[in-house]
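Fold it.
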Amino acid sequence: MYSEKVMDHFMHPRNVGEIENADGIGEVGNAKCGDIMKVYLTIEDDIIVDVKFKTFGCAAAIATSSMATELVKGKHIDEALTITNKAVAQALDGLPPIKMHCSALAEQAIKAAIEDYLQKSND
């Protein structure tokens, strides 16, 4: 059902945790399936220098959160904003169709954290 990469990111998720005084925080959830993702960013000169996440959810939710953080770390925020749920799923060697919503949540959480950063830096 799940690829080896999905299982690896589920069993050994990267970038788990919180960042105190994060520059951007994004939290998204899907009440239908119960998955909740929270992403924390540290940003310097519009580059994501650190990223952490906390996810409550299924294996796919945890794996997509982990992969999404790996995909944006070190990237300029403009580049990070272009990462799609399909890119997250492809990086994991695919997801079952019924679990594609997890990659969509990961994309939304990253974008929400960047939007939070942009709002804070414009205040």
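The chain has five helices and three strands.
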